[in-house]
Design a protein that fits this description.
Length: 161
Amino acid sequence: MTKAVINASPLILLAKGGLLGILSNLFESLVVPEPVLSEISVRPDDEVIKQFASLPLLVKLPVAPEPEVQSWDLGKGETAVISYALCNPGFVAILDDAEARACCRALGLRTMGTGALLIAAKEKDLLPSVREALVTLHGQGYWISDDVCKVLCSRAGEIWP
């Protein structure tokens, strides 16, 4: 299994889609930097926070921003996720933001987005359908283009829409 460090948007999306549990079966360790935790902890009574708190593999850590990541002028959460992955080889950075993923590529880091998590979950029989999961996430406000949905579904052996 892989170790991962995750940003707020994939956590929030998976929680809203009722899919947060797949993370425990995809990763042996899941690090959530404190700036990410701050982003999702705005309201302690929020359903996302309740689900998030129940993740058994979760490790919450302070993360110092790395200068080569700070130069990209990303959000605090993205900067912390990438900084952690940069300082901890073997960790995959889970991010949806395009600029943050470009930063990871430039730094030679492995990344996954929410879509790749869904495909990995289907491959491990944790999810019956990537297409159904994408439809559910769309209903929860996750915007992703039809072209990207077609690619994700194709990779999962499915058809969009």
